[in-house]
Amino acid sequence: MMRALRSLAPAARVAALADPGTVSRVDDGLAASRPSSLLARWGIAAQEDDGVVLASATVLGAPVLLAAQDERFLGGSAGVNHAHALRGLFERALDLRPAVVVLLAASGGVRLHEANPAEFALARALRALLDLRAAGVRVLSLGVGDIFGGSSILACAADRIALLPGTRLGLSGPKVIELAHGRGQIDASDAGAVAALFGAEARAGAGAVEILADDHDVVRAWIASDRGNDESFERRVHAMQLRLAKRLFGHDVRRDSADARRAPAEVPPMPLFAGGDPVEPGGWLWRDKKRPVWLSRPSGRHPFGPREAHALDAELLAHLAREERVDGTTLILVEDSPGHEATADAEALCVSQYLAQHAAVVALLRARGVRVAGVLAGTGHSAAFFVNALQAPNVYALPQARVVAMEPAAIARVTGLDPAELMTLIEEDPALGHPVRHFGAWGGIKRIVPEMDRERLLSLVAEEE
Fold first, then answer.
1. CA nearest 248: which of 171, 296, 178, 305?
2. Rounded mean pLDDT of 35-62?
3. With a threshold of 0.85, does the pTM exceed it?
4. What is the pLDDT of residues 54-78, one digit of tens each?
């Protein structure tokens, strides 16, 4: 008998997919209560599991680990403890080596009420997921509810992603795009237009995802069908780069990678780039003239979208991923941008997948032994920061740097705070504040340094490895 998943609670979804009687806790640590301590200030009652259920089970006889997000609790948003639980599951899977790890995704992204620590925690969960894939454990994600924000990147970072009919996937929601660019791009009240851009059927039609019938037997068979796939992480990353190139070029042939390579380089006005040269006309990747030190240039005034991520990844894969010897090779990810591209055009391309691919390319380089460090030289904004510098083991920052985990407009819309009070929070609140010291207080910044040149940074990286 057909049993739909969307109507079930997270624990029931897990039980519906598992072989009867096989669901159990992963371990005592991951089974412990994890209510958020950061919600009381907002008058919100915490939930014991912080909106995510973790379990061990078998599916058609194969051992699996599962995480099921709960869209009923704050839209399935990933708070600090929620993200820590996901990271813990991915790290535990490195030891347990299940046949597959399954993410039943239903989340609006990073929890606004816990902005700074939540973004950092979810970035670490993304890194743990990709490290798991690099170690040879397969990860599948299934959208059982709507998936937006940073959670859409996490879902797209899996080996395979599928959606149930009627669900939606996107980095920036329709209201965000309408607010930023007007109804000429999308009318958030037009259900048909929203479905045509974000809906599961549209995503599957564009080749971005698989679509599965909302039937537990169909989903069980889909999970089991991935068993025995031993293609290496490196081969999968290169294959995804080709898939995304085909989608990008077919969508707008006037803006293909050749055009990106011919674009004049923006020479970053900072000491880090002194003594280096761009390796291609677009200036996305620079190399030191004397040593195996590489720097990615920040996107500067331009949002980090599909074209930008794809162009940078093409250079990283061409110049670093194929090197036979990486001893002493260092990649410095320099961060300063207005954030990810929040447009209908970017969403039509499924920008979440391009940004997930960038995080995967960084993970591949780390897995091959390249030392990776992040530098926050200006603004670390939303998903652009999340998939780039925050994927490095350590991030260093200049004192004037700022981290914008959440835009003030979004905070105001959800909290209803007085504008004057909100601006005070933006400058002074540890969870919501933009000055880099607040993000650093949660562990997101290894060190704030008064000035940064390449020699100083390399000495820090060597000292703190």
1. 305
2. 97
3. yes
4. 999 999 999 999 999 999 999 999 9
Contact by Cβ (8 Å): 323, 316 = no
Domain ranges of the chain: 10-230, 235-398+449-463
333-344 b/e with 16+ CB inside 10 Å = b? bbbbbbbbbbbb
Give the pairing of strands 395-397 and 52-59. Answer: unpaired
Fold of 10-230: 2-enoyl-CoA Hydratase; Chain A, domain 1 (3.90.226)
Return the closest-CA partner of residue 80 out of 445, 441, 431, 411.
431
Q: Is the dihedral of CA 433, 436, 441, 442 positive or negative?
A: positive
C-alpha distances out from residue 176 to 107, 122, 156, 182, 328, Å: 16, 21, 20, 10, 43
Q: What is the pLDDT of residue 142?
A: 98
Query: Would you say 154 and 384 are in contact if contact means Cβ atoms under 8 Å apart?
Result: no
In this structure, what token pair is assigned to residue 120?
Answer: 């950092």
Q: The tokens 């979810």 sit on which residue? A: 122
Please check whether the two domains, 10-230 and 235-398+449-463, share a CATH topology: yes
Residue 120 pLDDT class (50, 70, 90 cuts): very high
Nearest to 112 by CA among 24, 39, 16: 39
Nearest to 454 by CA among 373, 361, 368: 373
What does the DSSP assignment read for 16-85?
HHSPTT--B-S-HHHHS----SSSGGGT----TTTTEEEEEEEETTEEEEEEEE-TTTGGG-B-HHHHHH
**Please, is 107 exposed, middle or buried when counting C-beta atoms within 10 Å of its C-beta (0-12, 13-18, 19+)?**
buried
Q: 385 with 344: CB under 8 angstroms?
A: no
CA–CA dist 288, 292 (Å, integer): 7
pLDDT digits (tens, 9 = 90+) for 410-442: 888 777 888 888 899 999 999 999 999 999 999
Token pair listed for 331: 């990649």
Cβ contact 387:355 at 8 Å: yes
Residues 6 or more apart in contact with residue 359 via CB below 8 angstroms? 126, 127, 130, 153, 157, 387, 388, 391
Give me the mean pLDDT over the 284-294 stretch.
92
The token pair at 38 is 């950061």
DSSP letter for 241, please.
H
Four-point Cα dihedral 182, 186, 191, 193, nearest 10 = 160
Structure tokens at 50: 């912080």
Quick check: 349 and 248 in contact, CB under 8 A?
yes
Give me the CATH topology for the region 235-398+449-463.
Answer: 2-enoyl-CoA Hydratase; Chain A, domain 1 (3.90.226)
